[in-house]
Protein: peptidylprolyl isomerase
Organism: Buteo japonicus
Amino acid sequence: ESGRAWKDSFSSLFLFPGLQLWLGKALLHISADNWGILIATAEYSGYLEHWDEPFCTNCYSKFPGLMKLGKDITLGGLEIGLLTMKKGEVARFVFTPAYAYGRQGCPPLIPPNATVMFEVEVLDFLDSDESDTFFQLTAEQQDTFPLQKVLKVADTEREFGNYLYRKRFCWVML
């Protein structure tokens, strides 16, 4: 179901069993499995209450961008929401102003004190923590890095490179 089904009021979401998280009232289950994951690829659409079209979406992009948690995501609620999810999962999140655009909103599109709903589908997660650590080391320190960790770094970099190659290849084909 798209956001159009909820254009009347976000309060109706509380009757729907697919709701995972209502930030501002209660925080439900943050998966410990995802705390080390730093990069996510997700499709999302953001809706204002009583709107039938999203105010922001990346669902029309063939390859949504990579979002580094703790760095690239501007909404605190969206970052926390992503941490509750697994690859392939779809969720709706309702964010109070404190977890979205705050008291001031984001004029002219987002009014002050706006509660927003995001529909999110996690396409993939990439754990770059080991790679980030490895590439911050000096060459001498990298030489002493355990082989299993070096292999994990190489695999992460391969996955990242493959994603960027597919994204580039598709842009060339368009």
User: Anything to note?
Assistant: The chain has two domains: 3-127, 130-173. Residues 147-173 form the longest helix (27 residues). Residues 3-127 form a domain with the Chitinase A; domain 3 fold (CATH 3.10.50.40).
